[in-house]
Amino acid sequence: MCGEGVRVSADMWLVVGLGNPGPKYEGNRHNAGFMVLDVLAGRVGGAFKAHRSKLFGSRSDVLEGRLAGERVVLAKPRSFMNESGGPVRGLRDFYKVPVERVVVVHDELDIPFGAVRLKKGGGDNGHNGLRSVTRSLGDREYLRVRFGVGRPPGRMDAASFVLRDFSAAERRDLGVEVERAADAVEALLGDGLAAAQNAYHSG
């Protein structure tokens, strides 16, 4: 558990992956954010540890380290997706990270499977996790790394679709695509939003 009194300067990045906790949800499309964060944790070379600040309400698994030469806190909230905002706000306040250095990695229905798109600000497009984060931060100008999961087939409900595992065909390429999304996060931190968009929006 991290200490209650720890503070860092505003050169820190907070990178949050969205998902639902527990083995039941591990392979779900909705957990793409967690998958990308696991890859980034491997690159940092550490393991996630519980961060539970009673003062800040930051219930998450976190890992501090360096990515792309930048100081970073990687985080996976321990709440369910639609309550992600509380832990994100808690971590933002605990580490004193300005909102423009908060990066949220999440699944995106309106992007083809495996495609990566980066943006700053905007709406939530019906994504309950983003809605919760925006409400809790009181600001929508955080950065987003969006991992495409595609649209549900036929008349399948979108909520049901994202709570299903990736298909067998998708799983064949999933590892490569998640690694590419992790690359995009590193590019965002190291090179900035415009350069990362130029590099990853062509794919």
UniProtKB/TrEMBL annotation:
What name does UniProt use for this protein?
Answer: Peptidyl-tRNA hydrolase
Q: How does it assemble?
A: Monomer.
Q: In which domain of life is the source organism classified? A: Bacteria
Pfam families of this UniProt entry? Pept_tRNA_hydro
UniProt xrefs under PANTHER family: PEPTIDYL-TRNA HYDROLASE
Q: Could you tell me one molecular function GO term of this UniProt entry?
A: peptidyl-tRNA hydrolase activity
| Family matches, as InterPro entries | Pept_tRNA_hydro (IPR001328), Pept_tRNA_hydro_CS (IPR018171), Pept_tRNA_hydro_sf (IPR036416)
Task: Give UniProt keywords alphabetically.
Answer: Cytoplasm, Hydrolase, RNA-binding, tRNA-binding
The entry's family comment says: Belongs to the PTH family.
> What CDD domains has UniProt attached to this entry?
PTH
Biological role stated in the UniProt entry: Catalyzes the release of premature peptidyl moieties from peptidyl-tRNA molecules trapped in stalled 50S ribosomal subunits, and thus maintains levels of free tRNAs and 50S ribosomes. Hydrolyzes ribosome-free peptidyl-tRNAs (with 1 or more amino acids incorporated), which drop off the ribosome during protein synthesis, or as a result of ribosome stalling.
HAMAP family linked: Pept_tRNA_hydro_bact
- In the UniProt record, does the keyword Lipoprotein occur? no
